[in-house]
Amino acid sequence: LVYVTYRQIVAVVVMLPFAYFLERKARPHLTFSLFVQIFVLSLLGSSLTLNIHFASLKYTNPTFLVAMLNTIPTLTFILAVALRVELNAAGALIMTLYKGLVMRNLWPPLIHIPRKSAAINESLKGSLLTVLSCVTWSIWYIMQAATLKRYPAPLSLTTWMCFLGAAQSAVLTVIVERNPSAWTIGFNIDLWSTIYGGIVVAGLIIYVILWCNEKKWPVFVTMFYPLCTVLVNIVAYFVLGEKLYFGSIIGAFAVIIGLYLLLWGKSEQKVSKCRNEDPECKSTTLAGK
């Protein structure tokens, strides 16, 4: 809870100058209804969902958590229009469900994290929290598209979301966390994690997501989530010393191929649409690819 609050505060401090100066003329007037919409968007993407996400991490593990994030593209697509399953999601499922041979670790873990076996009820609790966070994140992606139409200023919207998310998370922390010492962080990994999370994750990445959502559409943005599973497995193997299974390698290749087919299919769809509307634009579109 404290980590999420501090992370959002760091993001506000970093993003505010860029939002204020770079979007001074592009930023529209903030009405009350728009403020309420951004408030709900912050709740779904910056405070409530993040706290649920990290609470589920307490009862599960990073590999399981990031594997469950692969449900977000499908959930987003269901919420947007209809149901569809892509190859990259299937690859992520292979990485999660199929183990196969264990790959031998090349060296001892660079960072050692103590592991303890979770009880069945704790695992179930963590799984339910993970699913809930995936659902709220899917709603968040859908809301982004609607909010950006009314407030087409990604930097300013990111800053508002981080500011409101910090305030919401701070209120939640005061209610849940009664120990004042929890707000104290030392000059250690807690500090560096907060700075990294604030600048990169809560600031830069949210802005990039909003920018991509404005240029493309929510489902397209979320289709890259399976790459998280690939990267987490790689980092967990080389840095944390976790086991890497042959099934994870197969699934990783399926994810990469699925993403390539997705991008190739969308580009071909664009060419086909352009050709049907104006035959002369085919060469221009191909050149743009």
- Taken from the alpha-carbon principal axes, the silhouette is globular
Number of helices: 12
Helix coverage percent: over 70%
Query: What order do the helices and strands follow?
Result: HHHHHEHHHHHEHH
Biggest sheet, strands in spatial order?
Answer: 1-2
Class from helix and strand fractions: mainly alpha
Largest sheet: 2 strands, antiparallel
- The proportion of strand residues reads under 5%
Short description:
This is WAT1-related protein. It comes from Glycine max. With 289 residues, the protein is an all-alpha fold.
Describe this structure in words.
- InterPro entries: EamA_dom, WAT1-related.
- Pfam families: EamA.
- It is a multi-pass membrane protein.
- One of its GO terms (molecular function) is transmembrane transporter activity.
- The chain is built from twelve helices and two strands; from the N terminus they run αααααβαααααβαα.
- The protein is mostly helical.
- It has one domain.
- A two-stranded antiparallel ribbon has the order 1-2.
- The radius of gyration is 21 Å and the shape is globular.
- The relative contact order is 0.19.
Describe the secondary-structure layout.
Elements: H1 2-22, H2 32-59, H3 62-68, H4 71-80, H5 87-97, E1 102-103, H6 120-150, H7 154-176, H8 189-215, H9 218-222, H10 226-238, E2 244-245, H11 246-277, H12 282-288
Antiparallel strand pairs: 1-2
Helix pairs in contact: 1-7, 1-8, 2-6, 2-7, 3-10, 4-6, 5-10, 5-11, 7-8, 10-11
